[in-house]
Amino acid sequence: MPACICWMHARWHFPANAVVCLWDGGLVNDHGKTRRRRVHRRLIIFAVAQPRNLREKLKRFFFGIVLFILGAAVLVYAADFAVFRIRLAANRSPYGSVVVNHYYAVAQKSGKTQFIFDPPQPQACVNALFSHSGALPCWYLSKHPDQRTDI
pTM for this structure? Predict the structure, then answer.
C-alpha cells in the first residue's frame, strides 16, 4: 500500500491508488468552504480501491451481462402484458383462434401405443409474444398445430 499523503483540505487532487489522510478540522463541505470545529482533531484515512485482478473483472462483467439480460426480459414481458391489457380494455382483438389437431396417445400393456384422434377444432389464443390469461400465443399455436396428450 502506498505511503500516506496528508493534506489539510479535501479539494486537492490525489494520485491514483493513494491513501489520503485528512484532519477532521480541515474538511471541505459541499459549498467549498472549510468547516472548522472545536473538537479533537482526528486523523481520517480514505483508501482508494486497488485495481481488481482479471478474475474479479470477468466475474463482474458476466454478472452485469446476466443482470442486463434479466432486466431486458422483465421489461419485454411487462411491455407485452401492458399492450395485451390495453388491447383487452379497448376490445381490439386481444384473442385469436387457430385450428388445432388434438390426439391422445394411450400406452398399452403390450408396450405399444394406440393413438386416438379428435376432429380438428379451433382453439382460443392470445395475440401477444407471451402467454397471458392462461392462453397460448397465436404464433406458437400456428407453428405447433398438433397437440398430443399422453395417457
Answer: 0.57
